[in-house]
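Query structure, 367 tokens:
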């Protein structure tokens, strides 16, 4: 049976676009038909290199401007990995051109900008989604099942997470994530977005009542007007007493763990963003017990392991492939999934509030 594949264009040649080129190829219901850069030769080089490793059935067309790609009637959806500082313009233009949009995160510099972007997509009847892959992992279905059984973890009381990597020295000289004009949220936008998204997912999309944030370290390039966070911690307080703390950093060795604690036990995901290399995605639940017998004080561990068959990356089952496959199904349905952009907006609201708090010396900011 012939599959009517969603025809994708990629705006920009960022490194992450290579991973998502392969993801689109692996979906079975999508194909890349064009790539645009402000430099035509860069588009050609990007296509040639990706085709050499993961070829599309027909080599995509290179464009020397984003406008040309958006004007093409052949393209139905666009993936936009452009810097946050210039992203709004191209989301608005893509929506006006009738293209469905997967947008990298953080999606906008401000909440108001994101609201305008989402409203434009709604008005032009195009689907909008951020590029957070872990939300499309099959592991989340199993996680939700365990959280909702009300026995394994019990009512949730605390959510904690960390997402960090130690950037090399040249990162702060040449990477856009250290440039406030391009990525004004620094590590909070690049990494903390995932921490916040995980907490809101656990809470079924409930917004916290208030948040606080702390910039633990920051960096400012001489050519930029402001400094960006390079190490950040945040605290979220929900109306029912649940709290969530997170830490993100460009200075700390690789980590990406999340923990959900309840009245009956706790759940641990050691790799909630990028699954450890392998053919399954797993997590563990512990219902430890403290037993006293005379002079013996025993803390007993009672772990249970859960997993789903899902390759970590570069596979038809991987979470990035699931994202683009799910998106293509939604775009082809003719209906807009309003829940996707609504969740994205909530993450943006919390992220910006955390940064506002940090800029105000940790003052609590209400939502």
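Result returned for the query:
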């Amino acid at each position: 049976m012939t599959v009517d594949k969603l025809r994708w264009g990629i705006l920009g040649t960022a490194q992450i676009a290579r991973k998502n080129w392969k993801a689109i190829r692996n979906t079975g219901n999508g194909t890349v038909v064009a790539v645009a850069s402000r430099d035509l030769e860069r588009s050609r080089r990007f296509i040639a290199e990706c085709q050499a490793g993961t070829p599309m059935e027909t080599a995509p067309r290179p464009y020397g401007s984003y406008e040309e790609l958006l004007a093409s009637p052949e393209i139905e959806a666009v993936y936009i990995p452009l810097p946050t500082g210039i992203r709004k313009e191209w989301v608005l233009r893509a929506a006006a051109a009738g293209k469905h949009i997967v947008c990298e995160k953080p999606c906008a510099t401000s909440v108001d900008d994101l609201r305008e972007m989402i409203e434009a997509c709604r008005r032009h009847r195009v689907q909008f989604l951020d590029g957070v892959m872990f939300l499309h992992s099959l592991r989340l279905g199993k996680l939700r099942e365990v959280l909702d059984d009300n026995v394994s973890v019990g009512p949730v009381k605390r959510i904690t997470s960390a997402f960090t990597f130690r950037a090399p020295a040249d990162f702060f000289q040449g990477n856009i994530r250290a440039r406030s004009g391009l990525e004004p949220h620094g590590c909070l936008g690049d990494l903390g977005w995932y921490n916040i998204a995980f907490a809101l997912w656990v809470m079924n999309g409930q917004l916290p009542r208030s948040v606080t944030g702390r910039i633990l370290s920051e960096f400012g390039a001489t050519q930029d007007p402001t400094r960006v966070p390079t190490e950040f911690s945040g605290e979220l307080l929900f109306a029912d007493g649940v709290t969530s703390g997170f830490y993100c950093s460009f200075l700390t060795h690789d980590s990406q763990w999340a923990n959900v604690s309840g009245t009956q036990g706790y759940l641990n995901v050691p790799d909630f963003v990028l699954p450890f290399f392998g053919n399954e995605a797993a997590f563990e639940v512990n219902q430890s017990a403290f037993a006293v017998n005379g002079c013996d004080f025993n803390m007993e561990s009672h772990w249970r392991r859960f997993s789903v068959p899902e390759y970590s990356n570069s596979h038809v089952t991987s979470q990035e492939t699931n994202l683009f496959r799910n998106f293509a199904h939604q775009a082809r349905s003719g209906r807009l999934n309003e829940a996707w952009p609504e969740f994205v907006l909530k993450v943006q609201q919390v992220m910006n509030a955390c940064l506002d708090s940090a800029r105000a010396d940790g003052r609590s900011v209400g939502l």
